[in-house]
Amino acid sequence: MKKLLLSSAIALTATGALAQVDQDAPQGGEMVVTYQDDVATLDPAIGYDWQNWSMIKSLFDGLMGYEPGTTTLRNELAESHEISEDGLTHTFTLKDGIMFHNGREVTAEDVKYSLERVTDPETRSPGAGFFSMIDGFDTWNAGEGEGLSGVSVTDDKTVEITLSRPDATFGHVMALNFASIVPQEAVEEAGEDFGRQPVGSGAFQLAEWTPGQRLVFEAFEDYHRAGVPKLDQVTFNIGLDPTVALLRLQNGDADVPGDGIPPAQFLQVVNDAEYEDQIVEGGQLQTGYITMNTQMAPFDNVDVRKAVNMAINKDRIVQMINNRAVPANQPLPPTMPGYAEDYEGYAYDPEAAQQMLADAGFADGFDTELYVMNVDPNPRIAQAIQQDLSQIGINAEIRSLAQANVIAAGGEEDQAPMIWSGGMAWIADFPDPSNFYGPILGCAGATPGGWNWSWYCNEDIDQRAAEADAMVGDEDGREEAWRQIYLDIMEDAPWVPVFNEQRFTLHSNNVTGDDSLFVDPVHIPVNYDYIYSTEAQ
Amino acid sequence: MWGYLLRRLFESALILLGITFVTFILLYLVPADPARQIAGRSATAETVANIRDQLGLNDPLFVQYWRYLAGLFQGDMGRSYLQRAEVASLIMARLPASLMLMVTAIVTELIIGLTIGVVAALRRNKPADHSLMIFSFVAISAPQFVIGILLLYVFAVQLGWFPIGGYGTWAHFVLPSVTLGLLGAGWYSRMMRSSMIEVLNQDLVRTARAKGLSKLRIVTRHVMPNAILPIIAMIGIDIGLFMSGIVVVESVFGWPGIGQLAWQAIQRVDIPVIMGVTMVSATAIVLGNLLADLVAPLIDPRIKTK
Amino acid sequence: MSVATDPAARPRKPSRARVVLGELLRRPRAAFGLIIIALMVFAAVFAPWIMPQDPFAQSFDGLDLMGAPLPPGGDYLLGTDLLGRDLASRLILGTRTSLIIGVVANGIAVLLGAGVGITAGYFGGWTAAILMRFTDLMMAFPALLLAIVLAAIFQPSLMIVALVIAMVNWVQMSRVIYTETRSLAEREFIQVQRAIGSGPIRILFKHLLPHLLSSIIVFGTLGISTTVLLEATLSYLGVGVQPPMPSWGNIIFENQTYFSTAPWLVFFPGLLIVLLALGFNLVGDALRDILDPTLKGRH
Fold first, then answer.
1. What share of chain A is helix, strand, coil (3-state, %, to 5)?
2. Which residue ranges does the record assign to the ABC transmembrane type-1 domain (chain C) (predicted)?
3. Which residues of C touch A (CB under 8 A)?
């Protein structure tokens, strides 16, 4: 196990440095991926769960994208991307001859249409807020005006996007699924059903969708990158419990279980020599944490929050979930720029924690509640946390509820004193440190119905976050600024960062490719476009 | 008879109306805000307000309910908040699979359950009765997830007789029907046994015995028709259970039924889908019970439809 | 109503209880059932004194290095669960919750269902129409949704989950009893009673009920298994007992996906549920034989 962890850590640093895509990989063949849940939608303006996220990435392209298997930005549909000196004007030029699946060429007008569609209030896109830095967003998104004034088409191939404030994350925003380019005529023809009849310019096109059973993606012949995708066809079988998905894989009926290795069979599979070469481990841009509501006594006392930070035995929790995670000590995950390598965090020390609690006036501890989503292993983790808290005299009652109920409780200022975030935890939308701040730690998220469940709002830090995001062009300075922000947040201790989940992707011997493709940070579970078949010529 | 039927259909419509009302109120009481679910975690307060506005979630409860009813009467069940597709099409895509599994599972339960019940009643208090009793209790108490996976492992993976889950051919029906049927068989076998014993002690059987009729004839002609009455009532109930409560079996076998749709919708407060599925299963339950009440007098002529 | 469906509990003549109990103990199967029930009640009442270990302690040595639970044997009689807690102790403590659900909540549901069914079946007409359409309504009622709403409004408690179970579980019973009563009510022996002017209460309890006892017993005993498991589903949605409090149902529910790697976590609680239901079934069958007029003296 330990060896597995180490070797993959090396693999990660290597892939971070350079993309390892085998250009000579053979073409052809097919792959079968299984999922338990039905696919909600394939509309890039609407799909926002990890299952359809990577499917949409294969069906659609945006102006920007990522090098396969990495978090390195690259031009996707854009031939070039120029930024003005003040960082406010971004000029994108499209590549020549990019085709939509319906056979029409992609033009600059499509870019404008797509951005206006996703920010149009009538689209009800969950991603609209990401584009708030574009000039004219506020009026257009409020349902006024005629389109996004900040987006203008200069010629067939060129789009100029003006921002209302400089924003270093804009490149990542244009690589989000929400910024995918869609053809107006297809959207209008399908209406609300565009999510069932998607037309994009991605490497695959949708060939079949039988609800509740399967989806079939076929390679798009006119894709703008030669030799991509590698596979002719990807079939998604829907509705299968992960345990059954594993049986199918063992029987040769499936290649990648999309929901991962079921926790109950995890040890059995990783300890089985047969699967040694078929499991790829990688990091995830994810942190699991406990929130403490800073507006509710006694968690309004920073010493109480620090004491809780010292009371949690993270190693034990990680052991309990079969070492499928690494202990965390700060909000950012280790693979995120801005992660503080040498920060030590709050070490596990129940005696010191109890002392600190006593000094804060809670020598006898106190009663509180710990909210948790009801899907395994989260109630188990909550029970481990409960036992740790009881060591220092805190009696936490567990409220194990359906996801929607926990989210609703977290969005109330006075309802949930503590929440274990598992199952709802933050997974980055894009690999940038700012993405772990705004909605979950910033003042903007500390509103009724928001996701800042600590109700932590430090205006000084909010100010510094805004400044850091405006540092366009100074990558190192910006990274350092964010690093300091998260370390200062830890001084206020609104969270107990508990662990960063590791990904373990199992795949059959029929498909192969660089390991990084199987733990691609932006394509979960795998990068469908670049994986290839061992049976292809 | 026809008057009775008409009255029952009218009453059924009232019940369904009641169900829509109760469900609507419950959904209104769920603290989770559907607009938040749609907006996702990165949305601004304005975006959420806009979505609430567009879906009419700011209107008073009765206005919303009236709007829903008005749509329903025009055959419009609305669109899913999360999938954006029409609820009617989402349900119709899954209904055939649910209905067919329901039929095969009920046939399976009846075959296994009635056989066991009859044998146990005729061998009352003998070893066969005892082993069958234990079988029935185990079938009812065992988690369906475990039964399903075990059946898959033995008959699909090891023996390769059936596919590992999925939907399409007759072979796909066998294992899910058996998994579902075992639970029902447990119930039916116990019901059948007890009502057989009840009938066996009645005068008509004694009379038949006295007349010297053969045992087989007594059982098939006199005992079983009388004993099957409670089973008819059970089938009506079963129809309801199958329409709503087979999430686990659907998930284990990758069965594209409406249980999965309902479960996912409930967890994510997708109100139009929850309403739609509740309506469909309520209709099935009400009709199932109506059917049971209509069939009962045919089986037992003493019952009058009043 | 409850008086008559359980004659052993409150007999008309004080000596009758002893007679029935004596009858029961004379029958080996019934005596076996009584012993099972008595043992479980004993375990529930005296749980704190008979648990071998602390049922909440997540022992460091309760998991192996990879975090897998320990099989039966050694320090832990029935093995440990996924948090390294002693399974035997958790099962003993869980008896409390599961008995309340399986016996009390389920018992209320059975009595309610039998009462509604017998009343509707005997009187027919508008009484039946109203009662049975109400039953239909309750059967079609989205119980899981109700659970989610209750979970959000109330603090979770055993009381609420017991109420929900009693509220949703009586309907099946009432449908079956209704259908049977409709048939029985037209039989000669009931018609004769009506003709000689017996009051409805007397007919219901004295003449109808004995014939319905077997169905009631079947439902009552089988309902034990289903309600104990239903409790786990409802608790999962947040209305019932919350972790770390054990119940047989939630131990099965939480661990069922682990049955191939840690079968003891599913097998032992499942065995207890079967035993409890069997125990009640054996006693119930014997009771029926003792009380059923048509069977008198046939053993």
1. 35, 20, 45
2. 95-284
3. 56-58, 60, 63, 65-68, 82-84, 148, 151-152, 156, 235-238, 242-244, 254, 257-261
CATH architecture, range B95-299: Orthogonal Bundle (1.10)
CB distance C58–A387 less than 8 Å?
yes
Chains that touch C (3 or more CB pairs under 8 A): A, B
**Domain range for residue A369?**
286-501
Regarding whether A470 and A524 lie in a shared domain, the answer is no
To 10 degrees, the CA torsion angle through C147, C153, C156, C158? -60
- Range in A325-339, A523-537, C90-104 the model is least confident about: A523-537
Handedness of CA C195, C199, C200, C203 (dihedral sign): negative
Interface contact B83-A40, CB threshold 8 A: yes
In this predicted structure, what is the pLDDT of residue A1?
Answer: 29
Q: Are A51 and A258 in contact (CB under 8 A)?
A: yes
| Domain membership flag for residue C14 | no
CATH 1.10.3720.10 residue window(s) in chain B: 95-299
CB A516 within 8 A of CB A69: yes
CA–CA min distance C242, chain A (Å): 6
B258-267 vs B87-122: helix crossing angle, rounded to 10: 120
- Mean pLDDT for A505-512 is 94
Q: Do A360 and A445 share a domain, yes or no?
A: yes
User: How many domains, in total, are found in chain C?
Assistant: 1
Between the CA of residue A220 and those of A10, A41, A52, A58, A524, what are the distances in Å? 35, 20, 19, 10, 21
Q: Determine, yes or no, domain membership for A45.
A: yes
Contacts of A438 in chain B (CB under 8 A): 42
Chain C hits for B201, CB-CB cut-off 8 Å, are 292, 294-295
Closest residue of chain B to A143, computed from CA coordinates: B50
Dist. CA A199–CA A214, nearest whole Å: 18
CATH code of A130's domain: 3.40.190.10
Q: Does the residue A384 lie in any domain? A: yes
Whether A47 is in a domain gets the answer yes
Question: Strands, E, within chain B: which ranges?
Answer: none
How many other β-carbons are positioned within 10 Å of the β-carbon of residue C299? 11
CA nearest C146 in B: which residue? B26
Q: Is the dihedral of CA B183, B186, B189, B191 positive or negative?
A: negative
Cβ–Cβ gap B195/C153 under 8 Å: no
Q: Do the chains contact at A319 and C156, CB–CB below 8 Å? A: no
C151 CA: distance to closest CA in chain A (Å): 7
Q: Identify which of A107, A90, A60, A232 has the alpha carbon closest to the alpha carbon of residue A161.
A: A90
Residue B264: CB atoms within 10 A of its CB come to: 18
- Tell me, yes or no, whether A375 and A464 share the same domain: yes
Q: CATH code at C239? A: 1.10.3720.10
Please answer yes or no on whether A238 and B267 come within 8 Å at the CB atom. Answer: no
Q: Which residues of A touch C (CB under 8 A)?
A: 1, 243, 262-265, 267-268, 271, 316, 319-323, 374, 376-377, 379-380, 382-384, 386-387, 397-402, 404-405, 408-409
Contacts B306 to C, Cβ<8 Å: 124-125, 128
Best of A241, A399, A435, A443 to mutate (most B CBs within 10 Å, chain B):
A241
pLDDT one-digit tens code per residue, B49-67? 888 888 888 888 899 999 9
Of the candidates A40, A211, A244, which has its C-beta nearest B165's C-beta? A244
Between CA A107 and CA A93 the distance in angstroms is: 10
Domain count, chain A: 2
CB contact under 8 A, A267 and C67: yes
Please check whether residue A214 lies inside any domain of the structure: no
Residue indicated by tokens 């006898």: A364
Share of residues in chain A with pLDDT > 90 (%): 69
A29 to chain C nearest CA, in Å? Answer: 33
